[in-house]
């Protein structure tokens, strides 16, 4: 990595982490402090259960959702860096590395918090709450391999969400402020219509819809015990999705222009 790209990556990563920390503090206030204050003011102090809130708090999921929202905000950083002589290629590479690094950090913090919560508050371990473990946790004969693949799957899924949000943000950056509102209405309408058509098709073709769903999640009838479905198909779907999102982000970044607005 060149020195310039390294500097841009560090700048973007620090900016992302700063925003992540700021938003997370407000989330903590909203989830923990506000309910406590409301309970105290309403005279229901006995119903306050901070331990239960902390025990059930999904730190990793919360951080990834915040990262996805941050990933949608692209234009300000793009304009600043382009105006300071940074190429589009360098910006795209640095932004991708910064988002990936922040996602890895978010997942690590999530796992550490889950370990702390299950040890101190006797909450569920990450294996018990993991969708992957429930569906694919017995696919390999080695328990270590199953847990390792569960962590990798979690990281890939988080990257899928963050990169998808980044692509959406990049797409809307192509348009002026007024055009963004019109595009947002059009996209939401298209998604709703597509969803309704899919529901209608699935309702009329239950068998085919079931087969499609089974294919996407790697369900195998010949595996007669829980958690033994094939994870290779979902892994492949996530890998293809992440690559497509990155390519889409690259194409949009190469065509994005600095506007006077």
From TrEMBL:
Superkingdom per UniProt: Bacteria
Keywords: Membrane, Transmembrane, Transmembrane helix
Transmembrane segments: 20-45, 57-75, 96-116, 148-169, 181-202, 232-252
Name assigned to this protein: Uncharacterized protein
Species the sequence originates in: Ligilactobacillus ubinensis
